[in-house]
TrEMBL record:
Top-level taxon in the UniProt lineage: Bacteria
Residues in coiled coil: none
Organism: Bacillus methanolicus (strain MGA3 / ATCC 53907)
Domain NAD-dependent epimerase/dehydratase as annotated: residue spans: 4-230
Family note: Belongs to the NAD(P)-dependent epimerase/dehydratase family.
Designated name of the protein: Putative epimerase/dehydratase
Any one GO molecular function term: L-threonine 3-dehydrogenase activity
A GO BP entry: L-threonine catabolic process
Length: 315
């Protein structure tokens, strides 16, 4: 990666990834793009362009002008928003991905796009979910992710585009909030713990999902993109995870720092049923074996850092 073009650069992952890649590869070598500009560090600290990912021509032209050799395609709707607007989700998630893959093919770029635990469904083995297994998701988001994995592998085999991807679990961060995801509760719970000492969860107790702290997710993207392609048996996409938790696990960990923290429930049937259709825990051994995936943060270490960073951020 030398000349990196990022879509959805002001989203939950993009806003931190952009800043990190600028530190590693040089500010001028990382172009952030999104449908709007804001005053975040990602938007202000280096090259930026407005690009709507459904506009393929604009994407190719902007990437060509920038002399991109890497496309990191992040722009997409998350699971709950996609479920509320399935047709729009198909058009944005699939249309955007096709345009990004075509840009990579036309310019000969390396390519990354994230998949998700959402690429699995009710008939997938729930515990220690294997790398290669049944993928029959029950959500529009999941259908987009499975189709996206297949398309990205297709571009590799058919056109030789160096496509790579990760099946991310819920990502937890104190920088940019997620929007419209099923795993968002695991971010909100920390904000509310600091602000109000209590949280009402829309995901029920006993509902286990994989999670990962953002620094581990960003390091995984860089490690995968820098990995020797000859050693990759899989490409789109690798299971990665750092922990499997339910709301009670997170609350218990928060109570070690905020003893009076209260957790109550008001379950949202839509997001609860999405969560129940996803794995409890992923097997990340293919990522470990093929390119050395490693997560530094477990629940305890992440909680300590989240609460400290959020205290600073929220005053
Ligand atoms: N965090 C995402 C979501 O909940 C999972 O990929 O939609």
């Amino acid at each position: 990666m030398k000349r990196i073009f990022i879509t959805g650069a002001l989203g939950q992952i993009g806003s931190e990834l952009t800043v990190m890649l600028r530190k590693i590869y040089g500010t001028d070598n990382v172009m952030a793009t999104d449908i709007r500009r804001n005053d975040s560090e990602a938007a202000q600290s280096g090259p930026f362009a407005i690009v709507d990912v459904t506009d393929g021509r604009k994407m190719v032209e902007t990437a060509k002008q920038f002399k991109a050799d890497t496309i990191i395609h992040m722009a997409a709707l998350l699971s709950a928003t996609a479920e509320a607007n399935p047709v729009f989700a198909w058009n944005l998630n699939m249309g955007g991905l096709m345009n990004a893959l075509e840009t990579a093919r036309e310019l000969g770029c390396q390519f990354f796009t994230p998949s998700s635990i959402g690429a699995f469904g009710p008939s997938t083995p729930k515990d220690n979910t294997p790398q290669d297994t049944v993928q029959r998701p029950a959500t529009m988001y999941g259908i987009n992710k499975v189709a996206g994995e297949l398309l990205a592998d297709y571009y590799f085999h058919r056109f030789g585009v160096d496509t790579r991807g990760l099946r991310f679990p819920g990502l937890i961060s104190y920088v940019a909030p997620p929007g419209g995801g099923t795993t968002d509760y695991a971010v909100e719970i920390y904000y509310e713990a600091i602000k109000n000492g209590k949280y009402t969860s829309y995901i029920n107790k006993g509902t286990y999902m994989d999670m990962m702290y953002m620094p581990d997710a960003l390091n995984a993207i860089v490690a995968l993109m820098e990995a020797d392609g000859a050693k990759l048996k899989h490409r789109n996409s690798f299971n990665v995870t750092a922990m499997s938790v339910d709301p009670e696990d997170i609350a218990a960990e928060i109570r070690k720092h905020i003893p009076g923290f209260e957790l109550t429930y008001d379950v949202d049937p839509v997001r609860q049923s999405i969560a129940e259709s996803w794995p409890n825990s992923l097997d990340a051994s293919a990522a470990i074996e093929e390119w050395g995936f490693k997560a530094e943060y477990d629940l305890a270490k992440m909680t300590e850092d989240m609460l400290q960073k959020l205290r600073e951020k929220l005053g």
